[in-house]
Design a protein that fits this description.
The protein is mainly alpha-helical. The chain folds into two domains: 64 residues, Arc Repressor Mutant, subunit A (Orthogonal Bundle), CATH 1.10.10.10; 167 residues, GntR ligand-binding domain-like (Four Helix Bundle (Hemerythrin (Met), subunit A), Up-down Bundle). It is 73% helix and 3% strand. A two-stranded antiparallel sheet has the order 1-2. Helix 10 runs antiparallel to helix 11. The longest helix is centred in the last third of the chain and has 37 residues. The radius of gyration is 23 Å and the shape is elongated. The termini are far apart. Transcriptional repressor for the pyruvate dehydrogenase complex genes aceEF and lpd. One of its GO terms (molecular function) is DNA-binding transcription factor activity. It comes from Lacimicrobium alkaliphilum. Keywords: DNA-binding, Repressor, Transcription, Transcription regulation. This is Pyruvate dehydrogenase complex repressor.
């Protein structure tokens, strides 16, 4: 029989901080609490805490600023600000790829938020959507601000799903997803009927999550994104037909 070795205290602390990063309690670029505060939180000595921080630094999960504290590595945000994201965003056809990705991600997030979300998390989702509605009333032409608010709404939903993989994928791709939402709003909100229908669909997603109805939440999310995709495709077809008509008009007689 092999002897069971107890974990070093610094390893236990390191794993606790890693869990905080994975769970989203510590986000990319965020400063860790002061050394004394962390030592009190974990009820450990400061030398053990320092050793744990050194191990996290060696793993590339945190970094130190001289006289400025310890921070979670910003590179933890997947591909954030990478040239690849800019390349994807520059291709018009990629917007439909992003919609398909969002359909899968947000549908699962809605399902698990309804299944696993706590009451306080559901209240946070409701507050996030109220912020969206407030912006729509006060700044109806500001699609960039609305896209940011909608991204926060979806992020609250994903946090309530308690799925760390979905959360970090969403955060890593946030600039790309937010840009997709903004582009969609700029096209779709030109039609008040379409805009109103999207709002009703989002309310159905929210209501299903609050009611703890996972299947209805996923269905409502999927229907919402399918509606956006179908409407955008119809608009593109109409624009294409218009362009062809204009070219025929311009042909010499």
């Amino acid at each position: 029989m092999q002897r069971i070795r107890a974990k070093k205290l610094s390893d236990v602390i390191m794993e606790q901080i890693e869990s905080m990063i994975l769970d989203g309690n510590l986000t990319a670029g965020q400063r860790l609490p002061a050394e004394r505060e962390l030592a009190e939180k974990f009820a450990v000595s400061r030398p053990s805490l320092r050793e744990a921080i050194q191990k996290l630094e060696a793993k590339g999960l945190v970094y130190r600023r001289q006289g400025g504290g310890t921070f979670v590595q910003s590179e933890l945000a997947l591909l954030e600000n990478a040239p690849l994201l800019e390349l994807i965003a520059s291709r018009p056809e990629s917007q439909f790829d992003l919609l398909e990705f969002r359909l899968a991600l947000e549908g699962m997030a809605a399902y698990y938020a309804a299944l696993r979300g706590t009451e306080s998390q559901k209240q946070e989702i409701q507050q996030a959507y109220k912020a969206v509605q407030k912006l729509q009333q006060q700044e109806p032409e500001n699609q960039a601000a609305q896209a940011k608010a909608l991204s926060s709404f979806y992020q609250q939903m994903i946090q309530a799903s308690h799925n760390m993989v979905m959360l970090h994928i969403f955060r890593g791709l946030l600039p790309l997803l937010e840009d997709n939402i903004r582009r969609n709003l700029e096209v779709l909100c030109a039609d008040p009927d379409v805009s109103e229908q999207m709002n009703r669909q989002r309310v159905r997603i929210l209501d299903a999550i609050v009611a703890s109805d996972p299947e209805q939440a996923r269905l409502a999310s999927n229907e919402h994104l399918a509606f956006i995709e179908e409407t955008l495709l119809n608009i593109n077809r109409q624009n294409s037909n218009l362009q062809r008509s204009l070219r025929r008009i311009e042909l010499p007689q």
